[in-house]
Amino acid sequence: MFEASELNIRNHRVERLWGLLFLLMTVLLILPVVVILGVLVYKGGPIISVDFLFTEPKDGMTAGGIFPALVGTIWLVAVALLASVPVGIAAALYLSEYAPDNWLTRIINLAIINLAGVPSIVHALFGVGAFVLFFKFGTSILAASLTLAIMTLPVVIVATRESLQAVPQAFREACWNMGASRWQTIRKVVLPNSISGILTGVILEVSRTAGETAPIMFTGAAFFLPFLPQSVFDQTMAMSLHLFVISTQVPGVPEAMPYGVALVLIGMVLAMNAVSIGFRMYLRGKKKW
Amino acid sequence: MDSQAPAEALAIKTEKLNLWYGTFQALYDIDLDIKRGIITSMIGPSGCGKTTFLRSVNRINERLGYVRTTGSILVLGHDIYGPQVDLGKVREQVGMVFQRPNPLPLSIRENVIFGYRLAKGTQKVSASERDEIVEKALREVLLWDTVKDRLDRRAIDLSLEEQQKLCIARLLPVKPAVLLMDEPCSALDPKGTEAVEELIWELRGEYTILIVTHNMAQARRASEECIFMLLGKVIEHTPTEELFVTPANQETADYIEGRYG
After folding, report:
1. Is B127 part of any domain?
2. Does A102 sit within 8 Å of B156, measured CB to CB?
3. Is any Cβ of chain A less than 8 angstroms from the Cβ of B171?
4. Which of A101, A170, A177 sits opposite B91 (nearest CB)?
5. A186 CB within 8 Å of a chain B CB
6. Domain range for B79
7. May I ask the CATH class of domain A53-284?
8. What does the alpha-carbon distance between residue B122 and residue A150 come to, in Å, rounded to a whole number?
9. Could you read off the pLDDT of A164-194 as tens digits, one per residue?
10. Residue B80: inside a domain
11. Residue ranges of domains in chain A
């Protein structure tokens, strides 16, 4: 009475087929990653050396290294992080812990979603108007980083809010019931239990801006500037723009060079991801629930 | 709370308390006098407003933005909805225990001292003062002997019964007058239920206890007065024995006999 009927057998076959199809699609995802990394390592790997990383470009950028661009990108990402993290976390705290559910909150949420959808070139123009001209920062690391910060704010807010909402509501209720204010609850219970998620999420999101080109090319990144920046008011070279420049704007660049730059850029982003994931694993081990 | 307040015989007094969730009215003209130092239980079918009432007595309901309350609630003779009232102070005086034990993700010790630290504000709590308070509170809830060697361990690793006792213990250091308990035993096994009921019985006298329960047997054996609620109204409020033996009201009689609920 429990033997499989024709219909059961057919169902099993269809079931397996769909499973395989979905698996195939998932595996296809890996393919571009592997190919991109493979090509970069194969073509750009040989040019990578200590000299390449730590010297200035020479001979109209057709020789030498990428040191100023490397340092410039680190500056840009670091300053963008410093600007967007406090604002983003504060906004997320308001939206998650304080805001009542009313029309204002809904408009703010809508604005965040729309801000995330603004094309990066539009952010670039906004950055020129606001930071370079209006606030008179000039084309500088500060202006470029603030543009990047504005661009990443929505994802910073969303990542933070998700971490905050992962803290069980029962903890908050327990705190409130012992007479804690919202801020005391946040400081003593909510933040200590979500900070690992917040920081890693935020680092992941912001490190992606290392690859952004449009928002920085009018606001602070220089075509060719073989010096290291001394302050946030200097212009700087940046990896992403440098890659664009030597790939399309300068004749006579050896083929390996753009691949090498791209490899270093990807390596930087992956390294930041790895750091943030390691950090998350470390902090998660210390959680108290 | 000012200290010159007369010793009130009533722990909680409500007058014409009405409460709405949005447009839905959950409580209708609740007039209750809950005596000091005894255990009062609230029974009634699901959705009759027991928990809502409990949650108005320490104003935790207000965290939901769409709650509207009229009428008054006096705790020890003081209106807790008055304009000068500080929510933190109200919740020090009126502690709450939940259905599911909800210890904070901290050590056992820090859970017990948490409310005390809040009440102290920026003042430092010395280690000896802390240890004294923690021991006293844990002794009061009959938990000291089981946990005294592992105060630094995570509270979340205790058994549910121990967690619930801890959740009661952490209310005590700020010397509350009233303990509200929302089905405090419903997540526990029979042994845990017995232990927590025993503890609640121990605590009466020093604290006024208002306990919501679904379990009529529990109300009967573990309370001195009993309130029966139905559809947001108080139907009957009498000594427990009277309510179960000679209910004045037909609806009460039907409920305790299990005809609905």
Report:
1. no
2. no
3. yes
4. A177
5. no
6. 10-102+176-256
7. mainly alpha
8. 37
9. 999 988 888 888 888 888 898 998 889 988 8
10. yes
11. 6-47, 53-284
User: If you measure CA to CA, which chain B residue comes closest to A102?
Assistant: B65
What are B171-230's pLDDT values in tens digits? 999 888 999 999 988 888 888 888 888 899 988 888 999 999 888 888 888 899 999 999
Whether A31 has its CB under 8 Å from any CB of chain B: the answer is no
Checking ipTM against 0.85, whether it exceeds it is no
User: Which pLDDT value is given to residue B8?
Assistant: 64
Nearest-CA distance from A168 to chain B in Å? Answer: 10
Q: Is the pTM of this model over 0.95?
A: no
Do β-strands B94-97 and B178-182 pair in parallel, antiparallel, or remain unpaired?
Answer: parallel
Of A174, A179, A180, Cβ closest to residue B102: A174
Tell me whether residues A179 and B174 touch, CB distance under 8 A: yes
> Contact B75/B56 with Cβ under 8 angstroms?
no
- Indicate the residue type of A251: P
CB atoms within 10 A of CB B126: 9
Tell me the three state secondary structure of residue B212: strand
CB B162 within 8 A of CB B80: no
Task: Give the C-alpha separation, B93 to A147, whole Å.
Answer: 51
Q: Which two tokens stand for residue A65?
A: 């290294």
Task: With CB atoms and an 8 Å threshold, state whether B98 touches A170.
Answer: yes
DSSP B165-182: HHHHHTTGGG--SEEEEE
Mean pLDDT for chain A?
88
Q: Give the contacts of A143 (CB within 8 A, at least 6 positions apart).
A: A127, A128, A131, A132, A135, A137, A219, A220
